[in-house]
Specification:
Strand content: 15-25%
Largest sheet: 5 strands, antiparallel
Number of helices: 23
Radius of gyration: 34 Å
Structural class: alpha+beta
Mean pLDDT: 81
Shape: extended
Number of domains: 4
CATH architecture of the largest domain: Orthogonal Bundle
């Protein structure tokens, strides 16, 4: 099987190390991509993804981003950008799933169950908790089938990746070339053109400002403003408003008590010593039985740092906190009794119980507040998702105005301040919220907005209350911003022109700027110059001559790599193992990426360009 996979991989070229970028769409149910709907977003090898399925994934990814950026997404994350990222991830997931199936990889049902059972989010002190599992899935809008499908896909894809990455290797020549490349030095000549110096030299006439204004009247307008009526549905508000009486809490307590929920496990206070060999362990056990303390024995016989530092005291634990080889022995010991020698993969153990608590039941008074809190959280969460599902379904039809939705769910209608498409207040300060309410449907047709999720726990729906049209600004009102725009444009043009002219003259050998050039000589580890500039120096081939580049700070740099010096004897180079291991690992990822790209290029992919082209 491995040969079938590796035969498809293209030759890896030393020089460019590609890093695989994956979108971590965790818990999004990316498994059930089977649809026969005509409104498709794309098709891959006869597998159809509907527009509704894609929109669900885009929505969930946006939620994850909003949570990660605390509700303030960078401008880069437009709707179309998020959709493109999501589609790329779905392509990858589906194609790798198909590839895994085609070459016969399987992920056994037992492996799926083992993965689910070992997930800490689904476990309590007694192990896997089915109710907790279902509750966790419910809270993120998934069902067991979709999650199990997700686990299955992740499993076989991991097998596919491991079959490639775990069999990658580098030849001795490749290794030497990599080490030489890593430790080579470069001699560079360069000069920096300062943006602010160019800016100070720019002159702007009044006529230029007037022409800019007259030629771009549409730019110089006041923004349109709108007020909105809106429903703000917050899961935390719903939870706070859930009422639970002492009698209800008592009923919950008694029901759980019958199932043994509130029985406190026994806590053991333990002495412990870890020994290296069976012979030393027998000597230590003899000393303990003859009256030596665990502190004395640990100092004399143990080489385990933790044992010695803790003077033979292990701490307080319940049985579930301990490894099986210790817990099974503890249950047969009395307090102060010394155990026999216990062997494990770590060495040889001797333990003794200093003291232990009794099995006890937590009283209702001790648990009342916790029971109420848990009940409110569970009931409120369920109610929030029920409202979210029903209000989304009703709003989808656009048959109901905001007041009708508010009356149906007994929710207060709120009124926003005036906001524009570019600036808002409170929850309308989020760009993605404003994008969803400044639409033709909402502004022109007086329809309710789509349901807008601020995060996993909060959503809003808005409806236009009043609207102020954009107005043309006068020249005088616009003059200040016009001056900034014109100055910026002229400065940008001037610095590009100057840097290109100097570059061309240097390459032609006719420049008077050679004496102004600075010099750099060093490796990628040198700290003599700015890291960004150094990266540019080490990404250019000497054959290119002088080049000009923007430094990102608006300044321009003109430079030439004069020569590259490689170390002659790699045996004299130390501290190369980390880089070599990184290169080897990255090569294996590159091969896996190459396999994926090859598989994708051979796939039959049909994209609904009309739908995908929407903003």
């Amino acid at each position: 099987m491995l040969s079938k996979i590796r035969d498809k991989l293209s030759t890896w070229v030393i020089g460019v190390l590609l890093l695989l970028i994956a979108v971590p769409l965790i818990f999004m149910g990316l498994g059930n991509y089977e649809s026969s709907q005509e409104n498709y977003a794309f098709k891959i090898n006869e597998q159809v993804i509907s527009t509704s399925q894609l929109e669900q994934e885009v929505f969930q990814y946006r939620q994850a981003l909003e949570k990660n950026y605390q509700g303030n997404l960078p401008p880069l994350y437009t709707n179309s950008f998020i959709r493109d990222i999501t589609v790329d991830y779905m392509f990858r997931t589906i194609l790798l799933d198909q590839a895994s199936r085609n070459i016969g990889l399987v992920f056994h049902n037992n492996s799926i169950l083992d993965t689910i059972y070992s997930t800490s989010s689904f476990r309590d002190d007694d192990g896997f908790d089915k109710e907790k599992y279902l509750s966790q899935l419910y809270r993120i809008g998934m069902n067991p089938n979709s999650y199990e499908r997700y686990v299955y896909q992740k499993g076989i894809t991991s097998q596919l990746q491991d079959s490639i990455t775990n069999t990658s290797f580098l030849t001795k020549t490749e290794k030497n070339d990599l080490i030489k490349f890593r430790h080579h030095t470069r001699n560079v000549s360069y000069m920096i053109i300062d943006y602010n110096d160019i800016k100070k030299s720019i002159e702007i006439s009044s006529q230029e400002l007037i022409e800019e204004y007259e030629n771009n009247l549409d730019i110089y307008r006041s923004p349109a403003y709108a007020k909105y009526l809106y429903l703000d549905i917050d899961k935390n508000d719903i939870i706070r408003n859930i009422k639970v009486t002492d009698a209800q809490a008592k009923s919950i307590y008694e029901l759980n008590l019958e199932e043994g929920v509130y029985i406190n496990p026994v806590v053991y206070k333990l002495n412990h010593v870890l020994l290296d060999t069976d012979i030393i362990a027998k000597e230590a056990l003899r000393a303990l039985n003859e009256g030596s303390s665990f502190e004395e024995v640990s100092l004399k016989y143990s080489t385990d740092t933790e044992t010695v530092e803790n003077k033979g005291y292990l701490g307080e634990f319940t049985l579930i906190d301990l490894p099986d080889y210790l817990s099974s022995s503890i249950t047969s010991l009395e307090v102060a009794e010394i155990s026999n020698i216990i062997q494990s993969s770590k060495g040889f153990h001797i333990i003794s119980i200093l003291g232990q608590t009794d099995n006890s039941i937590s009283s209702f008074d001790d648990l009342k507040d916790t029971i109420k809190k848990d009940y409110k959280k569970e009931s409120g969460t369920r109610k929030y998702f029920e409202i979210a599902d029903e209000i989304t379904e009703m709003n989808f039809t656009k048959k109901y105005n905001l007041k009708e939705l508010a009356d149906r769910f007994n929710i207060q209608v709120k009124l926003s301040k005036y906001i524009s498409k570019d600036e808002g207040h409170g929850i309308f300060d989020y760009e993605f919220v404003r994008e969803n309410i400044f639409t033709d449907d909402v502004i022109m047709d007086s329809k309710t907005s789509e349901v807008i999720y601020l995060n996993n726990d909060r959503l809003i729906i808005a409806e236009l209350d009043s609207y102020k049209n954009s107005k043309q600004l006068s020249y005088e009102d616009s003059k200040e911003i016009i001056e900034v725009l014109v100055l910026t444009a002229k400065t940008n043009d001037a610095i590009v022109e100057k840097s290109e002219n100097i570059r061309n003259d240097l390459n032609a050998g006719i420049s008077d700027q050679f004496d102004r050039l600075s010099s750099f000589s060093g490796s990628i580890d040198s700290d003599e110059i700015d890291g960004k500039i150094k990266q540019l120096f080490f990404n250019i081939n000497p054959a290119q001559g002088f080049v000009s580049m923007n430094l990102g700070s608006k300044d321009y740099i003109i430079f030439s790599v004069n020569d590259i010096v490689y170390p002659e004897n790699v045996d004299e180079i130390s501290d190369f193992e980390d880089y070599y291991n990184f290169a080897n690992n990255t090569r294996s990822e590159t091969e896996f990426n190459s396999f994926y790209n090859l598989f994708r290029s051979n796939a039959e992919i049909n994209i609904n360009t009309e739908y995908m082209g929407r903003d």
